[in-house]
DNA sequence: GTCTATATTTCGATAGAC
DNA sequence: GTCTATCGAAATATAGAC
């Protein structure tokens, strides 16, 4: 596999970086995990250095995230809360898929301020906007109607906070499962019966 | 200053670790930032190695966080939402104070699973419990009464998520200020007029 | 493209003078 | 306790055979 190795290196690095952090993973460890001889410079046939690998990795994973098709919605016969729960479940799955990339982006944020700004001004703002539209379409309570933008950020922040606690603590941090969390959040954001 | 240097080293390391991550900061950089000659082993008169420094740093900062006295509440004449906003403001200030420590704990979580568990089983669970008590005492809407534990975790997760977005993006990530965020969250969790 | 081998740099850690 | 000096280990990166 001529060009397949490059992707194997990225795959190996993605897992190692997410686990230990970029700075703590030597190139030799990446080589080993990618099935190359550790200590051979084989890595350098594919990337000039570790920095360039990080860039390529982030580019590839962000593109992958962008291209991900949102699952088709089956809304028939559901009430507002139920619809929102479905969305929140999908959001959490998405975050979980992106988990390794997120850890890397966080640990590399100081070395890549332009990337941070790109994410903020596109992904973040788009999330708020779409969250606002969603929540407004679902018979929201007064608190949501009063400031839909802030309510959308509450929704987004809560999901991110839950996801990160899950990641940090290894498993659900408390007695509240993801499903129960999503239901509680959805119930707060919709009037319900 | 005999023992003062030790604390200066910890202070310097706290800032550097939070900024770049523990693994990426060499001992020489810590020495320089603490006013010692970079490359001299002066560091090793105070700590056996970097691992021991991390332990001492985390211990010191966690003790500092535990000893922090919560600001006295002045509740007279406030309604439920207002009381909760006050609490959320204080929570966010607390998180901001702990910012550097939080980054270090996150980046070191794989190397210190016992510490992670200690945090989960004390700080996390205590936060949920006290959040649940607080939110139940404030004329909550039906969604909160249905599952107060989950509602408390929504509150905690939202605050953590907001705080982390602020930290990651450098400043408020979107058009919603901390104050506006706290108001929206408090309004969702209380019936309010 | 991958290997063995190695040059080079950086970092962790210690010895000994002051 | 801090310094200069330095050793040894580990990591980055290159050279050249296959």
From TrEMBL, chains A, B:
Gene3D superfamilies: Homeodomain-like, Tetracycline Repressor, domain 2. It comes from Kribbella antibiotica. Residues 28-47 bind DNA. Residues 3-65 form the HTH tetR-type domain. Keywords: DNA-binding, Transcription, Transcription regulation. One of its GO terms (molecular function) is transcription cis-regulatory region binding. This is TetR/AcrR family transcriptional regulator. Pfam families: TetR_N. SUPFAM superfamilies: Homeodomain-like (SSF46689). InterPro entries: Homeodomain-like_sf, HTH-type_TetR-like_transc_reg, HTH_TetR.
């Amino acid at each position: 596999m001529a060009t397949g190795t490059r992707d194997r290196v990225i795959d190996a690095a993605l897992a190692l970086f997410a686990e230990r952090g970029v700075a703590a993973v030597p190139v030799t460890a990446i080589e080993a995990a990618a099935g190359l001889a550790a200590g051979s410079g084989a890595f350098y046939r594919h990337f000039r250095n570790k920095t360039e690998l990080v860039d390529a990795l982030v580019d590839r994973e962000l593109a992958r995230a962008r291209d991900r098709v949102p699952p088709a919605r089956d809304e028939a016969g559901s009430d507002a809360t139920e619809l929102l729960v479905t969305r929140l479940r999908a959001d959490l799955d998405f975050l979980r898929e992106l988990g390794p990339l997120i850890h890397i982006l966080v640990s590399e944020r100081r070395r890549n301020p332009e990337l941070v700004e790109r994410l903020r001004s596109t992904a973040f703002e788009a999330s708020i906007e779409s969250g606002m539209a969603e929540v407004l379409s679902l018979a929201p309570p007064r608190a949501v109607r009063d400031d839909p933008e802030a309510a959308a950020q509450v929704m987004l922040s809560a999901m991110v906070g839950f996801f990160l606690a899950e990641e940090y603590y290894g498993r659900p941090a408390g007695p509240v499962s993801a499903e129960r969390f999503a239901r509680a959040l959805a119930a707060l954001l919709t009037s319900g019966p």
